[in-house]
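Our preliminary data section would be incomplete without showing what the modeling component actually yields. Below, a chain of 124 amino acids is followed by its predicted structure, encoded as tokens that our downstream tools consume directly.
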Amino acid sequence: IQDIPVKCQYIGYNNLSVGDFNFDGTLDFSVFKESFAGSNTSTIYFIRDANTTLYTESEFIGGNNLDFDYENKRIYEHTSCCAGNERYIHTYKIENYKMILIKETCLKFNREKQDYDEVNCEKN
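Predicted structure:
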């Protein structure tokens, strides 16, 4: 048995999730950490070492709104700001149990079109 102290908000049955978060074929678990402005949330991911069966807190950059694509072995981070007028999508791959940024998409709401336009991320 492993004792893992965690500082987080308790929100009931959705507080804990299980999945293969680093795509190594071994089930890991995550704990909801906290909510931020808008729909932004943070989760702590614990990765299981297949050799020792022990869990270690990952270095998944705070785990902000992460979606896991098991087929393509990619992680997508979705964040927003400015009352939802700006959205950011970051695509990561996993190397050595760390998230490596491979693509960044920035969107800004266009009031005339009532839809988002892709914009240069360096200007935001």
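DSSP finds no helices and nine strands in the chain. The beta strands are 16-19, 28-35, 41-48, 55-57, 66-69, 74-81, 86-95, 98-110, 115-119. Preliminary results of this kind motivate Aim 1 of the renewal.
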